[in-house]
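note to self — DONT lose this again. spent like an hour looking for the file last time. sequence + predicted structure for the chain T wanted, 113 res
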Amino acid sequence: MPTGRKTILVVDDEPQIRRVVKHALGDDGTRVLEAATAREGLDLAAAERPDLIVLDLGLPDGSGEEICRQLRGWTQVPILVLSARHSDAEKVALFDAGGDDYVTKPFSSAELK
C-alpha cells in the first residue's frame, strides 16, 4: 500500500449506505473497502488492516456489538458505528464493546466527515 494512503472499511448490509459512505469518505485517494456481512467485515479487517472501520449494528449474520468485541481482541483501529438505533443503552453498550464514535441514520455526508 502506498505511504500515506488511508484505507476505510465500510461494513453495512445496505448497498446504498455503503455507497453514500464511500462517496463521503473516499476522496483524496482514500481506499474504501465494502463488506455486506459481519463475517466479510471481520475477514477484510484482518486481511487489509484498515485505518478506520465504519460499522452498522444490524447485520444479517451478527450484531455490531459482537463485531466490536471481536475486533478489539486484536486491533485498536477506530470504529465508527452507523445505526438507525437511537437508544442511550445501546450506545453505551457499543462504547463498552469498543466502539469509538456513533452516528445515527439518517446522516449527512458533512456529519460523517
